[in-house]
Amino acid sequence: MNLPIHLTAAAAALCALALTACTPTSPPTLAAPTPTSTPTPTPTPRPVAVVTTPSDPISIDLADGVIHNKLYTAGKVPTVRCALPRPDLTSKAGMVAYAKMLVACMDKAWAPMVEKSDAYLVPPEVFAYSVRHPKATPECQDPPANSDAFYYWSGMTGKICIEWDEFLNADHPVENLVDFEQLVAHEYGHHVQRSVGILTLYNELMRGKSEAGQLEVMRRKELQASCLGAAFLGANKRTFALSGRRLGIWRSIVQHVGDEYSTVRDHGSRKNHGYWTIRAFSTANPASCNTFTAPAKRVS
Predict the structure, then answer these.
(1) Cβ–Cβ < 8 Å for 273, 56
(2) DSSP 3-state assignment of 296?
(3) Helix orientation angle between 244-254 and 173-195, rounded to the nearest 10 degrees
(4) Higher confidence at residue 46 or residue 104?
(5) pLDDT in tens, 70-84
(6) How many alpha carbons fall within 13 Å on the CB side of residue 252?
(7) What is the pTM of this model?
(8) 50 Cβ neighbours under 8 A, 6+ residues apart
């Protein structure tokens, strides 16, 4: 079973139904940064709990798997030691090397959190692909359009696929780096969702819903992935030097990721993306990321 989840850099674009998560596309460059797409640009039955969408009330057994997942009570994401290389986003090789170290850092932080959730984290693989030459990277099959990255599950392994053309030769290297780190953190958020079982129940969440109801489920999933990524970055803000100007750049990026820059309402508005990410950065706690119990207005 293959499960892709996409995130668009600088403008989160996570766009596919059921098995796919993309990240919304961000707006053109701002005065400072250009938002990352993933985010992504990246949002289950047997009656026990009830999850309602504006037009589709549905009873689903999400009590343990989604609504009351033990991840929400696992505590704060730990601060971990990471030996990050000097960032080099000017070449495909440099980008992959840095992304792999980022992911290794996230593995260290998230593994104990996943274990507290009665699950096991298998480190994901990292690949760089080009939409212009998709056959060159068969590991990232069927890359979604208008996406700077996506998460893909196949067999027992998760894959984070990054569209490397999007990050080469950036005019603003600091903004580009912060955007890239936000992108990878979002995609890793999908890996956490998969590891603790939330994505395993995703198809059931979609079942029986109208198009509007399915889009709301997607937004809940995508906003949660961004929220989990922000919890990690907040816990490890010193490692990523996210203070002062760099923190301002990050905040600008996450507040400019949203469906306003896309034709599909599958990632959430700028306002809601900023809401979930900024508060998770402050708490560094997955308890701040239960988008599946949030009112509809918080996942619009």
Answers:
(1) no
(2) helix
(3) 60
(4) 104
(5) 999 999 999 999 988
(6) 19
(7) 0.82
(8) 57, 58, 59, 60
